Structure formats: structure tokens, C-alpha cells
Amino acid sequence: MTSAWSRRTFLATSAVLTAAGGGALALSTPGAASAAPEDDPYAALRATWSGLILGEGFSPTAEPFKSRLADLGAKASQWLEAMAPADGSLWPDAVFADPDPDTDPESYVFSGRMADSFIRLNTMAQAYRQQGTGLTGNTALRDAVLNGLEHLNAQVYNDGQTRYGNWYSWQIGAPQALLDVCVLMYDAIAPERLARYCAAVDHFVPDSAVASYTGTSTGANRVDLCRVLALRGVVGGTAAKIALARDALSPVFPLVTKGDGLYADGSFIQHTTVPYTGSYGSVMLGGLGLLFALLKGTTWEVSDPKRQVVFDAVENAWAPFLYNGLVMDSVAGRAISRGEVDDHRRGHPILASIVLLGRGASAAENARWRALVKGWAQRDYYSPPMDNPSLGLTALARIKSVLDDTSLTPIAEPDGHRLFPDMARATHRRPGWAASLSMADRRITYYEVGNGENLRGWHTGSGMLYWWGDTFANGQYSDAFWPTVDPYRLPGTTASRKVLADGAGGDWGVALPDVNWVGGVTDRKRAAVGQYLKGLTSTLMAKKSWFFLDDTVVCLGAGIHGRDGAAVESTVDNRNLGPTGNAPFTVDGSAKPVTAPWSATLTGASWAHLAGHGGYVFPGGTTVKALRENRTGRWRDINTAGSTDPVSRKYLTLWFDHGTDPTDATYAYQLLPGASEQRTAARAADSGWLRVLANTDDQQGVAVPSLGLTAVNFWFGGSVGPLVADAPCSVLVTEHGDGTATVCVSDPMRARTSLALTWNRAVASVVSKPATVTSATTGASLRLAFGDLSGTRGATQTVKVRLA
């Protein structure tokens, strides 16, 4: 083994790769342009990992890779020039020595700087190995990386150090970066040094870290820990470590019924109570893709048949929350407060991870996923993936390989509804728009705050209704929405204006409302969804229902009650109009001022329209308040690590003011995404299109005769229109126009051992029914008796009938 590359060896190797059109300089043995020796499996794994983290199949002289490589070199040069090893730091701005080591917030900062120091070395190592960085093969850069590793090992990351601050920094952040550097610089690191680095990893990430599937060793965290163990085995030439990493992945694969992981309905939970498909779920997906690819074709290949659960989850769990390249904020947890990475920039790595995961899936799955990714990437006009400055070279290369693949026909967005009762979420897609709903219950937190992030996400679980257009408003929540929006007026929510402290309710999703009735019913095209809402640290209570239909979402609220000495409001919508937004706003045909500030109380309003966004219909007319304002905030306001620079955006807000300490207040409106002013006015004028059957504290229901639809959320048993239920449930009935109908029922409370439902409609026969129906009687009315629904986890039970 040599301690460094000679210039002659480097130049010769570079010439070979350049002639071959290669991208990254992915060699594990100096002077060898070919793959690792066949009799050295660890060298082969190092070569594979180098390719995975440096990228493959791209030209370093083509954009955007040329610019990204130059940026990588500039960043590495910055770290090289600023490096100043000293007692307690490697860089002056990243002091990691903790004068009072424990697990308080200050110690979190110090441990984070320790991990960040390794991440900077990783950046430098990549600049050394990649072509086109301006520092490729630079000996000063190489020596700085090697000296930096030694300094951190001597000072802080060694087998005699006791960890402090955030466990993540010691078990995932630092060792992942350290081991990546060891792979990239393997031939320049003396064996004795490698042994010490491996001993440090063994100290902080012992085998016992994956001994049980509990605590911080579940879901995405478990995959990250397995990555550390696998690379530790690769760097140290320890087969047992690699085998342990492979085997420790197995608990991630099976579907779960509680806690962290993937659920049968497509939910993904991390931190026990937080829907996290778009953040931790992304990490898990990417980590699994990397490990599957690393070990494929080796002695340690991941062969657990349950890994198919992950493959199935691509379309069952991740795809429902991807829309035109973005991943919906409703499943991003604390990540919404990170100003540098918005919903589009969080979505793009998921696209790249799906491409990578496809390498380990079947040929049919791989082809379909690539077509899905091509569609998402092509439709992301707001923030094209290839322009994403936070997307790494490897992810860029994977997405570009799909965009350039002329054999692929992009798959369009699906049409339909997905309900995720296990994480109190729903998504709805129709031609031209998509929506997402976030709620909270006894199992799912209002919101997650932690590490000083997401300090004002208090009401994101109070029925927040997000929506996007296909060719408009894709940046609605991307364009500085979170630091500038009024956090008490999130769209769709009902909230008390009681002043809340930053981080109210406690860290890590501990705040859970004491309610069970949250969920609904769907026929996969339409849905009735309800939330029994109790306010975060307030006396607020409300019953909220959403009926997701073909071109609208019908929104009802009832039983709205509060005794906080504060106003209570239900926000119809709160649209981010951007820095200059002057979208015309019309109410009942009357144009309102486009200047800000402007506000009004709209009495007897039957409809409103916001140009470039959509329409709002208020059945029977109502009083609603409107506000056009300019709002200024800072990312630091919602994230202690955020920028202190002020940002301003204009908003148009519509809301119902229920007054101070209301009793049994109500609201009703239709949201029509993308509707023109003419269509909005026409819907308002068609008083027979929608019938509100009930909007009380006991039941909420609607009928739309033209759709043959009746839908009711029974908070308590009772009679609503043609439906009678003897217990709480959610019901959706659709007559299809061909002599048949479906009756869809669920128990959102997951508690019913019996349920009787009557539909007062003549039915000739039952075509099919689930096992939960213990008896069905037809004739002048349909009577259904359901058995134990407690085990259905709130899933929809569908009965198909033929009408008389």
C-alpha cells in the first residue's frame, strides 16, 4: 500500500478515465484504471461505494455538472484556506470542545460542529477525487484532509471519548462522513490510522446499536446506522460488520402497526408520532437504495424477501405525496422550517432515490418508476431538479439519466383520493390540481418541534388544507411561506388566537390531542374526512369535515367552542402571492383593491375569486373577513439556525371570525382550485348542486345529486338524509348511474365491535361485501350490520349493491 498518489499515476489514471468519458475518479488502487482485484471483495466494495457517492455516467464538462464541480472545488478551497487546527477545533468557526458536556442545547451545538467538521473534510475529499473541481489530485488538499482526520481523532472522535450533545452527531453524522472519507482516500491513509478510525466508530456505534429495534434505532435512523456498520466493515475489512448491517436492515422491512416505520395504508412514521414520509422517509429510502446497490451481487447481498415491502412502498407510500417534483409539507415535520430546502428541493432527492432503488427491484418496477420520475421531473416547472443547487452530483446524474432516456414515456399524475388513517393524513388528486390534509389525534402529534426547529408549527395538525395547481401555484409553500405566513391562520385550520410560546406543547411530538375520531372513508376517487379538533394548550373544540369531490373540496365546521378569552377563527385560505403579488380579488362580481394593506368584512358573500388561484363558494351566503397584507419574517423566527435576513411576502387571507369564546359556531364553504371567476359564480348560483344535510356537533353531511353522492360523518349515531347509523362512523354512498351503487363505511375511532347502518333506498341485491358485514337486508331500504371494526384500523369497508 502506498501513502499517496504520485503525480504521474494520477495523471495517467485521469487520462484513461477522461478518454473513456467517465465522470468521477472512482479508483480504489493507485495506478489502476480498472476495477478492484477479483480476490479482494473489500476493494470491490470500496470501488462501488466511491461510484455511489461521487456519481457515475455524467460528463464533467457538461452542464450542470461542470458548474457543480467548480462549486465543489470552490467550497473545498474555502475549507482548505480556513482550516486552522487548534485545541478544541479544526476550524475557528466550528469549535467542538464542550466546556460543560451534557445533553443540553449548548452541547447539541458543540456535537453538531464536531460532525460538521467531518462533513467539511468529506467535501474536500470529494473535490480531490472528482474531475473538474480545480483541486483534483491536489496534494495540499489531500494532506489537509489526512491531517484533519488525525486532528479530529486525537481531539474528539476516538475510542476514549464520552459523547455529549446529540447522539445523532456521534452515531450517524460524524461516522458516515468519516467513513466516506476513508473510502475516498483509502490508499493515502496508513493502516494504523484506519485501525484507529475504525476503533472510534466501534466505540460510538457498537454492534449493540442495532441489537433491538427500539428508541433511536428504528426506521430511517436504523438504516443510517446500518450504513455506518456496513462501511465500517468495508473500510476495516470486517465481514461480520457487513453481515450485521445487512441483517439489521430486516426489522425495517415488515409493515408495522404502531411506532416507527411503514404501515399497510402507506403511512410512514418516525419519532413515534410524526408523519415523516418527506423527510426521514426520504433518508430511509435513499439509505436503502445505497445499501442495496452497495451489496448487490456480493456475498452480503440483501436477500430478505420482506424487502419487497419497501419496493411496494414506492407507489404506496412515497408517490402519493409527490406532486410535480415537490414532496408535500404535510409529511415533512420539522423540515418545513429549514429555509435552504423547500418542498421541491426535498422532493428531488426522493426522485433520485427511487431511480437508485430501481436497480435492486424487478425490471418492470424499475421501468415504471423511471417513467414516474420522468413525469415528476418534467412537470416541475417551478423548480426544475437539474437547477436544484442543493442536489448532489449523484442525484443529478440519476435524474438526468431518466430525463435523457428517450425510451421512457412519462407517467401522468394519478387521479383519485388516498386516505392514510395511520398518520391522520389525506391526499386528493384531480385533473389540474392536488390537495393534502394534515390532522392530529391520540396517536399523531399536532406538530414536531426539536433542535430549535419548527418553533411555530403549532396549528399544522389542526386541519391544514394544502393545495397546488398543475401549472400554477406550485411555489405556494416554497416561496418563504413558513417564515412569513400568520401561524394562527394556516389554510383550512380552526384555531384560537390565544398566544402560544415558541415550541408550545413540548419537543419531539409529545403533544397529542385526547381525541379518537379522526379519519374518514374513501372509494379511492372521493372521500369524506373528519377531525374532532381539540386545540393545542387551549380550550378550543371543533368538529371539522372535508368532502373531497371532483372539482371541489366541501368544508364544514360545527360545534366550535372556546373559553380562552381569545378569538377563534377558521381560515378559508391564506394564499402566498409572492413579493409583489397583486392578484385581483373579486367578491360576488365586485373587484376589491389590489393595494396592501386592505381589509374588509364581507357580509352576505356568496362567492369569492382570487385570480391565478381559484374560487370559494359560501352556500346561502355568509359573513367572512378578507385581508390583503404584506408580511415580513425571518427564518430565524421559526428555526434557531435560520437566517436573520428579513423576507417579505404578500398574502390574501379569507377567514371566519367566530368571535371571542364562541359556543357552537359553524362555517361552510367550497374550495374550487383553479376555477375561473365565471365557473365560481356559476357554482354559487346553482343552489341545488350541493345540499348540506347536516352541520352540527353530532353529524356533518352533504349530498350532491348530480354525482349520485351522499356522504356523512357521524360523530354520534343518528339520522342524516337517507342514512341512519347507530354509532359513530363515516359513510360515503355513490349511485353510479348504471343501476349499481357502493356503500363505503369506516370507523375512524377504531373501536366499534358492532355497527348498524341503514340506507333508505330501494336495493335489489348485494353484489359483494367485506367480511366485516355480518348481515345485509335488501328491499325498500338497505340494512347493514357490521361486526368488529376495531381491527380494520379505520380502513374503508365497501359494499356493492344493485339498485331496485
From TrEMBL:
The Polysaccharide lyase family 8 C-terminal domain extends over 691-755
Give one Pfam hit by family name: Lyase_8_N
Has UniProt tagged this entry with the keyword Signal?
yes
Q: Does the keyword Lyase apply?
A: yes
**Domain of life here?**
Bacteria
Q: Which GO terms describe its molecular function?
A: lyase activity
Keywords in alphabetical order, please: Lyase, Signal
Instruction: Name the chain's protein.
Output: Polysaccharide lyase 8 family protein
Q: Which residues form the signal peptide?
A: 1-35
**What InterPro entries does the entry give?**
Chondroitin_lyas, Gal_mutarotase_sf_dom, GH-type_carb-bd, Lyase_8, Lyase_8-like_C, Lyase_8_alpha_N, Lyase_8_C, Lyase_8_central_dom
Ranges for domain Polysaccharide lyase family 8 central come to 417-676
**Annotated Polysaccharide lyase 8 N-terminal alpha-helical domain residues:** 49-374
**Similarity comment:** Belongs to the polysaccharide lyase 8 family.
